[in-house]
Design brief:
This protein is an all-alpha fold. It is built from four helices and no strands.
Length: about 70
């Protein structure tokens, strides 16, 4: 109960539509992070031949893999 009072005091009053919109954006963000992680995992597994075929170098892959998950 104390935590809820704390949260309630620190957050602006939000209507139902704002809460739904915020939650929807949050879920979309999580899906984007998951998709990015999967794409990078697949990119890391590509052979040199496959990378050449799509026009990427191993150095470009390493640079992509070194990015933080939110970028």
């Amino acid at each position: 109960a104390a935590l809820m009072a704390f949260i309630h005091l620190d957050l602006p009053e939000l209507g139902h539509a704002e809460i739904v919109t915020t939650f929807t954006r949050f879920v979309a963000g999580l899906r984007e992070l998951s998709a990015r992680r999967q794409q990078r995992r697949e990119l890391a597994e590509l052979s040199e031949y496959a990378l050449h075929d799509i026009g990427l170098s191993r150095a470009q892959v390493v640079a992509e893999l070194s990015k933080p998950m939110w970028r």
